[in-house]
Amino acid sequence: MKNVAINGFGRIGRNAFKIIKMRSDLKIVAINDLTDTKTLAHLLKYDSNYGTYESEVSYDDDGIIVDGEHIKVCAVKDPAELPWKELAVDVVIESTGLFVKPELARAHIDKAGAKRVVISAPAKGEGAKTIVLGVNDDDLKTDADIFSNASCTTNCIAPVMAVLEANFGIDKAMMTTVHSYTASQKLQDAPAKDLREARNAAENIVPTTTGASIAASLVVPSLKDRFGGLSVRVPTPVVSISDITAVLKRNTTAEEINEVFKQAAQQPYYQGILAVSEDELVSSDFKGNSHSAIVDLPLTSVIGGNLIKVCAWYDNEWGYSNRLVEVTADVARLLPEENTLPNANQVNQVNDFNAVNSVASTASLNELTTAQPTVTNSDQALSASSTDMPDPIEVANQLGQQLGNNTSSEVNNPVNSTTYNQEMNNTDQASNNQQNLNAPRGF
Length: 443
Known about the structure:
Rossmann fold, Dihydrodipicolinate Reductase, domain 2, disordered C terminus
């Protein structure tokens, strides 16, 4: 088991926390956030998008308590001053959105004493290795100590583009992501650097830029200078859809494209990453779906033989958070095995670290139990070993050879979230299977 610290306990940080708590290969030893522990516990327990967290949650002056386990909470602005060495932290999930430059994130390692950092955003500048599971998993085997999990949109479009590139060849392409609003936007008109983003997010369709196409080119290099896009923010709280228009290098049909994606969704390499839907669904049907991309087959279209459109849904919070945790687990597995659990003395040494969080009372937050994201059966499927990871382009190329021999039925249709209690009986076994490096997918 490897030790993880979360720096920044916002939407992504809290989702990552809940996912890690369902695994047996990672242990959260600390959270760093400037917010008081009472508020952090409340926001962990109660979630407007996904419902009430079913675990027991309370708090004290020094941290939060989840199902009886106390997790240390620090309130430190400068990552260099965090007690990661004392807490024997293996990997830091950097989810503040502030330290996306690798030279800033490096303070977690060089100053604070962690071994690795995974940034929950596209890295700005050189010095971080960008990983998109289902595309360039093999790049995890590197000497890098800072990794970027790219963006939610990149995690959606990159596997889709990789499959298209391998099976048809892409001459050029454009992408528009119709994206739910995020916390960075305004509830009322207010000054902002981007004048469009200065407007009320709840009442407007807001065109803005996205670096997703550039990041996709980092993990699928053949797309460089041939892929662009933009983002359109819309007044929905979660779940987005990417609309990809491409000119292919050969003629095809919508039926052939859909068959390729059906075949890809059945490949072990893409389990938990790529799914397809043959039903005519809407955004709320994909809330809590943990795949990176769910290709909407009825929306596939072709004009003139090689001008194609493919659309893919993604839960920009829950799906992305799953990939973030999986990358964190893979990075942690590549560290040398050693006993890294902090002892009681080490934890006590940092008990005074958090004078800001001087909340006198302890409050229980466990009255309600409602919906949480569901872990679908396909998310439990495990992939090839990351130590012997197949080349994603080779995997996708093999699909074309299989099309004449295999007849696929509908696979991996998304399941709307109800509760993850139904999945917990399978979680321990799946997590145990992930103790080796055979399982960078799902649970």
